[in-house]
TrEMBL record:
Keyword match RNA-binding: yes
Pfam families named among the record's database cross-references: S4_2
Gene3D superfamilies to which the protein is assigned, alphabetical: RNA-binding S4 domain (3.10.290.10)
InterPro entries: S4_RNA-bd_sf (IPR036986)
Name this protein carries in UniProt: S4 domain protein YaaA
Organism: Fimbriimonas ginsengisoli Gsoil 348
Example of a GO MF term: RNA binding
Keywords assigned: RNA-binding
Keyword field contains ATP-binding: no
Domain of life of the organism encoding this protein: Bacteria
Segments traversing the membrane: none
Length: 78
């Protein structure tokens, strides 16, 4: 259950999965892969409420990614 007052949004993907690094770029949190690496080294992300800092982590439809600002992003398929 999300923390009270947490923002939620959905991101639609058309592929089987998206990596955490690709999702971070898709959300316009950074401009480049190098920035993704730096952000993951300093900020807290969670996938399905488990902390994760691997930019290659596969995110599938139904997964929920929590951003450092506590926004929860649900990945959905087309």
């Amino acid at each position: 259950m999300p923390p009270q007052g947490a923002k939620q949004r959905e991101i639609r993907i058309t592929t089987e999965f998206i990596t955490l690094g690709q999702l971070i770029k898709l959300l316009d949190l950074v401009n480049s892969g190098a920035e993704v690496k730096a952000l993951l080294a300093t900020a807290r992300f969670a996938v399905n409420d488990e902390p994760d800092d691997r930019r290659g982590r596969k995110i599938y439809p139904g997964d929920i990614v929590t951003l450092p600002n506590q926004t929860r992003v649900k990945v959905i398929s087309k």
